[in-house]
Amino acid sequence: MEYEGILDSLEHSVNADAMSQTWSYTDSHVKVDAMSQTWSYTSSHLIVDAMSQTWSYTSAHIELMPCPRHDLTLALLYLCRCHVPNMVLH
């Protein structure tokens, strides 16, 4: 979706494998604002395995913006990763 110098894009993806009893979910979001010269990218990925009763989750957030004092671009990165074994799935 694009309007007034702003681009906002959202994507979802779900994959399932009946043989290995696994499924995964991927989500990404990109937002660009030409007026404030900022953009951000957020991504998350979830994998569930019913056979081994495990799941993992990975997420990242990147945000870029101009520095008004130095006229440079600052980058902020947040990465979160978690893995929980032996979790009972219903």
UniProtKB/TrEMBL annotation:
It comes from the Eukaryota. This is Uncharacterized protein. It comes from Gossypium stocksii.
